[in-house]
Write a structure and sequence with these properties.
This protein is an alpha/beta fold. It has eight helices and eight strands. The radius of gyration is 20 Å and the shape is globular.
């Protein structure tokens, strides 16, 4: 059973992570089963290599943060910014227990999300949300695929969280996308990456109505319909038929 099951008979704010909000957008029925009935979805495989890339990038940007200097990738791309220094940064990055938090009074939901990095524009003092991504594919990486819509909403959700904490936040965020090179002549205990900075202009206007829909879903005594593209729901339905 899930420890985060929703209790409609309490006035305590209900905590939802950015991932849970994404799960609702993916499939309201699966979300309801988890948050209202306590039935967890099967766990996904851990992305240990991606996590290692994230940690190394954080260490690298932290070195420039400490010295209040621009990172070479910022300079190369003409971005007049430096990594943002804040006493709560380590908490903001802690996605499992902490993260950036924002209370949404209309729904009595407490939202949180662990971001990868934040930069600050030296001219406007606007914060810039940054997300690290790692993959290994031929050709240039991009964020144009339909399945990458979740990446974009991820940045927009973090922008919404920071704005709720009184920060001035740029609409433009960035993906630091690391693409593992597979056509080297040998491994030699080293995996090289080609790093590309991809700008994305976000729009967080979807967050507020989504939270209201989530609250309606949580208060319902019946599960909503599943998303037509939900593979888990299709698998369960086919298994019952079989």
């Amino acid at each position: 059973m899930s420890k985060t099951i929703f209790n409609p008979n309490t006035n305590e704010p209900y905590v939802l992570s950015r991932t849970r909000v994404h799960n609702f957008l993916d499939c309201p029925k699966c979300f309801y089963k988890t948050q209202r009935l306590g039935i967890k979805k099967p766990p996904s495989f851990p992305f240990n290599l991606n996590n290692a890339v994230d940690e190394l990038l954080k260490n690298e940007f932290d070195a420039y943060r400490k010295n209040k200097e621009s990172h070479p990738i910022q300079i190369e791309n003409g971005i007049d910014a430096i990594p943002f220094e804040h006493p709560d940064l380590d908490d903001w990055r802690e996605s499992l227990r902490k993260g950036v938090k924002r209370y949404h009074e209309p729904t009595n939901l407490l939202l949180r999300g662990g971001l990868d990095d934040v930069w600050i524009d030296k001219k406007t003092d606007e914060l810039i949300v940054v997300d690290y991504k790692a993959t290994s594919k031929k050709g240039e990486v991009n964020i144009d695929a339909d399945w990458q819509d979740g990446y974009k909403k991820q940045i927009e959700f973090y922008q919404w969280l920071l704005r709720g904490n009184g920060f001035k936040v740029s609409n433009t965020g960035y993906f630091v996308y690391c693409n593992g090179i597979k056509d080297e002549e040998s491994f030699n205990n080293r995996l090289n990456f080609k790093v590309k900075l991809i700008p994305y202009k976000g729009n967080d206007h979807w967050v507020e109505p989504t939270l209201k829909n989530i609250k309606q879903c949580l208060l319902s005594n019946t599960a909503p319909a599943s998303h037509q593209d939900c593979e888990l729901c299709k698998y369960v339905e086919n298994s019952l038929v079989a």
